Amino acid sequence: MDTSFDMFIETEVPENELIISRTNLSGVITYANETFARISGYDVDELVGKPHSVVRHPDMPKSVFKDLWDTLALGKNWQGVVKNRRSDNGYYWVHADISGVYKDGKLIEYKSLRSPVDRETKIKMQNHYDALRKTEEKNSRVVLYLTDEQLEAIAKVI
Ligand SMILES: Cc1cc2nc3c(=O)[nH]c(=O)nc-3n(C[C@H](O)[C@H](O)[C@H](O)COP(=O)(O)O)c2cc1C
Fold this sequence. Notes:
Elements: E1 19-23, E2 29-32, H1 34-40, H2 44-47, H3 62-73, E3 78-85, E4 91-103, E5 106-115, H4 119-136, H5 148-157
Antiparallel strand pairs: 1-2, 1-5, 3-4, 4-5
Bound molecules: flavin mononucleotide.
């Protein structure tokens, strides 16, 4: 079996700040706040004009985003736990709340507010998404959580 091993650094989303973005109706970013830029590792200028999938993480199953867009198409809010990829290939977890922006009763954009996710939920959702991806994709990536002792052992040899 061909195996490779990588370590990625998680960026924690601060409790007292919100990551905010807006997109046009096709998911292209029209606004990003400073917190979004800092946490994702991009500049605000780099984010605006890019599809929101710029922060898509390969661990996220396709079906989650299908559900997101299907829900928005029905005019409803979508809430979910999302793992995003940083510009340096690290990652950050958010609880996302995505909804329509209306002007004179007409849907003009979508907006997303995001807040932190606790460690237990991250592990639960990682396992859930790993299982979902297995059913959706031929090649599966596996994510392992290490104990402190295992991490220390690895740290000694690298
Ligand atoms: C307001 C809004 C915010 C979104 N935020 C994210 C996000 O943080 N991360 C992400 O991967 N996709 C996000 N999406 C979904 C993306 O538009 C896209 O569907 C997803 O990244 C999957 O990429 P793909 O459609 O190219 O497969 C968001 C969509 C909207 C409308």
